[in-house]
Amino acid sequence: MKQDLQICEELDDTDDWVEPAMLAQKKYGTPLALSLALLELPLSELDKKHVRPRAADWDEYRIRSERWDASPNNPEDAIDFIGWFTQQTVKRNKIGWQNVKEHYLALRLGHGGLQRFDQALYTDLALQAKGVELRAKRWSGELNFCQEQWQGESWYSKLKIW
Questions:
Q1: Nearest to 106 by CA among 121, 123, 85
Q2: Which residues contact 93 (CB under 8 A, 6 or more apart)?
Q3: Tens digits of per-residue pLDDT, 22-66?
Q4: What separation in angstroms does the CA of 49 have from each of 21, 71, 73, 117, 148?
Q5: Helix/strand/coil (H/E/C) assignment for every residue in the chain
Q6: CA 6 – CA 138 distance, rounded (Å)
Q7: Sign of the CA dihedral 8, 13, 83, 40?
Q8: Angle, alpha carbons 78-82-83 (nearest 5°)
Q9: pLDDT digits over 115-153, tens only?
Q10: Which of 6, 22, 69, 100 has the fewest Cβ atoms nearer than 10 Å?
Q11: Residues 6+ apart with CB under 8 A from 94
């Protein structure tokens, strides 16, 4: 019985996200499901909105990467930022790659804000983080089956991460 692979089909429809997400995994170590989940959107809406970085974090990314013309509305830039930012979260906050909730909170609050975050005071944000975590877990399982669909793509062989 073939498993429902909704994410594979949705990524095929918006394939300009797959290659940058795989490149971010190779470049920064960011798991594919984490990159995509931090976009905070249903994949069917990826063409409408991309990433909402905090201004200070976006500026730091542009300075450190020397990507002065980078835009959070460009799929390659948005995913590269997420890869860079999550790598910084791992280093600065000692957060593991699989801790999606903490990565989401760091993205929303900044690295220092994450240290001061009180879940009891910000229950809505804590619930949002839990939702992103659940989405990433579901997608992680589904993404393992996408490689079969992507093997025919020209970019797949040069970025293969499985």
A1: 85
A2: 102, 106, 111, 114, 115
A3: 899 999 999 989 998 898 555 555 455 467 889 999 999 999 999
A4: 16, 12, 7, 26, 28
A5: CCCCCHHHHHHHHCCCCHHHHHHHHHHHCCCHHHHHHCCCCCHHHCCCCCCCCCHHHHHHHHHHHCCCCCCCCCHHHHHHHHHHHHHHHHHHHCCCCCCHHHHHHHHHHHHHHHHHCCCCCCHHHHHHHHHHHHHHHHHHHHHCCCHHHHCCCHHHHHHCCC
A6: 10
A7: negative
A8: 115
A9: 999 989 999 999 999 999 998 998 888 887 777 777 776
A10: 69
A11: none
**For the CA atoms of 49, 145, 34, 133, what is the dihedral angle to 10 degrees?**
100
Structure tokens at 127: 């619930």
Cα four-point dihedral sign 136, 38, 114, 95: positive
Sign of the CA dihedral with 41 first, then 43, 73, and 103 last: positive
Residue with tokens 């984490």, as numbered in its chain = 34
CB-CB contact of 83 with 25 (8 Å): yes
